[in-house]
Amino acid sequence: MDSLTIWCNAKFPEPAMARLRERVGGHRLLLPQALQKSNLAAGAADPMLAEADIAFGQPDPVQAMQLPRLKWVHLTTAGYTRYDREDLRTAFRARGAVLTNSSMVYADPCAQHAVASMFALARRLPQCMDDQRAAKSWHQADHRARSQVLTGQSVLILGFGAIARRLVELLAPLRMDITAVRRRVNGDEPCRVVPTEQVDQMLGQADHVMNILPQSLQTEGFMTRARIEKIKSGAAYYNIGRGSTQDQAALVDALKSGRLSGVYLDVTDPEPLPPEHPLWTAPNCYITPHTAGGRAGEFDAHVEHFTGNLERFLAGKELLDRIV
Fold first, then answer.
1. Average pLDDT value for residue range 236-254
2. Strands across the sheet containing 28-30
3. Whole-model pTM?
4. pLDDT tens-place string over residues 171-181
5. In the predicted model, what is the mean pLDDT of residues 197-213?
């Protein structure tokens, strides 16, 4: 294949950028003047994108769908809300263009973060840490009596993509009763999967409700107050997907009443969560600042994933993490 032009608006650390330059070989690499530090931010339209055959990062979706030369867009996120639109899909399909994301980069760290949160709540690690940092008290009998083992308990996973698939693998040794909810059941999932229409009846049966829903028109406010009230009394709720998918006031109320045993949130709405927000002080609510997907070497992993897909693209093979 002739030399291609690859546009990238991701601001990677220099070692990762050097690796990208090395791995693209003889292909031309275009870097716009304004590079993005955060892959969660929307990319602006850029005149240089019109010269590109491939875009790597977060290109402006409207511009991307209007450029006939652009053959492939690879996103530096697992989520693709800005690109989940029918006009973009139609435009890409009409010219044979491909859209991929970075789900494989985030599957392991997010799944491990989810498992860590489940273990932490089951073994009351945050409460013991509070004892250490505050009164330095020794509540041995209480913590022992209220600690749980995950083995044999039930978990309901909301959303089933690469992260959920990896989570199921990590939970397998615990012999948990795992059910996932997704819009379309493919039949090849490694656990029981039910369609979204059955979520209301499933919420009352699970010991753990794990929200991994992406942000979209279909998932906006998915966990309404009514659905949060359907969660089994004493269950734990987690969200490593998007904060916009849940009613946060309802979560605060469920924690204050003691109906939920614990809530673990890696995502909120808005982000950062304002210091005065009641979630910060709600009992048994634990928050991490959208770090589930993070890890040392995250940017190197992006470069390896993209350039691995580039090799497949040049060889005419099916691309990994394909959306369109």
1. 97
2. 28-30, 5-8, 54-57, 72-75, 98-100
3. 0.93
4. 999 999 999 99
5. 97
Q: Rounded CA gap, 254 and 35, in Å?
A: 42
Kindly give, in sequence order, each residue whose CB lies less than 8 Å from that of residue 307, ignoring residues fewer than 6 positions away: 20, 23, 24
How far is 180 from 35, CA to CA, in rounded Å? 38
Q: Which residue has the tokens 């791995």?
A: 23
pLDDT in the model for residue 102: 96
Give the model confidence (pLDDT) of 15-45 as tens digits.
999 999 999 989 999 999 888 888 878 888 9
Mean pLDDT over the full length of the chain: 96
- Residue 1 scores a pLDDT above 80: no
Location of structure tokens 């394909």: 322
